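TA notes. Do not distribute before section.
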Amino acid sequence: MRGRFPVSRPRRNRLSPAVRSLLAETALEPRHLVLPFFTVPGSGVKREIPSLPGLFHWSVDRLPELVEPALEAGVRAFLLFGLPSRKDERGSSADDPDQPVQRALGFLRGRYPQALLASDVCLCEYTSHGHCGCLAGQEVDNDATLERLASVALSHARAGAHVVAPSDMMDGRVGAIRYALDGAGFSSVGIWSYAAKFASAFYGPFRDAAGSAPEFGDRRGYQLPVSNPREALRDALMDEDEGADLLLVKPAGTSLDIAARLRGRTELPLGGYVVSGEYMMLRCAAGAGALDERRAVLEYHLAVRRAGCDVVVTYLAAEIARWLREEA
């Protein structure tokens, strides 16, 4: 009967670890992780990236050294970036089948059928000026860029990509890519759109690693202002209307509010990209003894999941997967 016993607050410490695990509201598992990496021309190359200690440039022949341990740990998805053998104004090497991304896709698709292969679609690594599209004077020409992006995506599909991931932030690129893929018989190739990609300060190490820093100006003309959450939501929902299969939010840690709000507006899967600056922030803090690395990394990535992301793109994917296996 009500009132016979004194009312007390619930005591969390009554719950055993097993019960707490059973009742966990959010999970981070290896299947949620996507491992990005950089592939380069040549052979026999495993070269540490100065701006991203602990990460490497890989030639195609040495990719098993990266991919096999990740697969063994439980990671099943990979996102390919490439450094080309040549650059020019229009990024003409981006859709060349002999460049590292296309060669890596063919190699990995044949060798690891269990792996899901996604490829970054952008021009910044391939253009001599470092911008994400074709130029008209010193401005990016949005419409002229769409044809190039569609051609790049199609070259990746032909090479073996399961998914293409346009990161350029041009208006209309998802529709242009979907039209090109469907027209060439690749309707089963998915599009993971960088739908809410902010003009962030956290991309610096990546631009060094990919050799993609702009030669002049910056990318605030086509990436999202960090002050505009409603614009980010509009852009993401437009990508959904154009045929995107997954919407990526980037950087993940500074965009948790966007992921949470977007989760309430779409039924599409969401991804959060823990970018190079976030990787370095965690690594440097842990290296300085300011943080317990394992606990901090797991907490950070769990927060991305908690905000509503179904997958997390992270350079720490293989390490996280191994830690999670050890704790299971």
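Switch to the second chain here.
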Amino acid sequence: MAGMEQKKRKKKRRKKKMSGAAKFGIGVLIAAGILLMLALIVLIAYFWMDSHGKSAFAEKQEAVPEQMQQAASSSDVSGNDADDALEAGSIRYNGKTYAYKSDVLTFLCMGIDKTGEVKASKDLYRGGQADALFLAVLDPGDKKINIIGINRDTMTEIKTFDPNGLYAGKEVAQIALAHAYGEGLEESCENTVEAVSNLFYGLPIHGYCALNMSVISTINDAVGGVEVTIPESLAGVGMKINGKGYGYNWSAGDRIHLQGEEAYVYIKYRDTKVAQSADERLIRQKTYLQGFVNQAKAAVKQDMTLPLKLYTQVLPYMVTDISAEEAVYLAGQALSYSFDENDIYTMEGHVEMGEVFEEFYQDDTALYELILKIFYDEVTPPGTASGS
């Protein structure tokens, strides 16, 4: 009898052990199920944001650059032939007809000479200058990304305001100063958007993003860093930006994988005592952008949620009218678009020394033709074989 009792107790213990293991297994399955559900929710939210971002941009793609058409019927751009019979968005230039690509999306990216989080300026003349200005163009027809760098010293009409914030008229000044007139937030950005749009013959700009340039380090590291070749202007040790000293033993021609503050120094630094240093910095920023875009595309392929994570992370340092939904949509689109060094353009022109600072004067004809190249398609007349 005692032996039988022992066997019963062992069976009960076995049952208890099996029951505990089963419970543990069920717990693991439940945890895995919860994680799977969370992953599905993230994916559903991502695609929902992608869809809504696409719809939001579709509503913005209605305007056409009217000043391009007006210039075609005036003497503003040499070589143009007037034709009042053309449809809106179409122009004739040097005997050829061009139609505006109504599906392109154009964004103004601004790097502001400020550090830390974005704050409203109490002084309406201290909204921060736009030291970096780029137009990013997404062309769904050609499936490519084009980027146009704008010299911060470009002389053009900008809106000015008095110390009380009242509109004081327009004056010709460096385009970087358009952002300085304002509180450093939406007003400053909208003032710059208007100045850039007018400079580009009324080109529609579908969104803007202004970043305090110190956050570049965060964005750079989020995509895994960016490789660049050090130019002559950055060779040596010891640089100061906004009163802070940086020391890097860089030599001209070195191939560097930029990390942290290195990226900030690379795109921000310029020696104002050297002639045309803004132009040199723009070229450097151009090479950085090429590496960054390709690195960002690779990083997003590894983590589709990266655009949303990064958007949230940099929001305190950014002023933008691009929503999170729109940012997710744009990132998804950019993955399938081509981009290389030939897709980055800078404006042609010449530099003159003003009373105090350098002034860049663009070549109007070259700018007009650049806009035609990126934003227009040549229209083949009816009955004419293409390429003839």
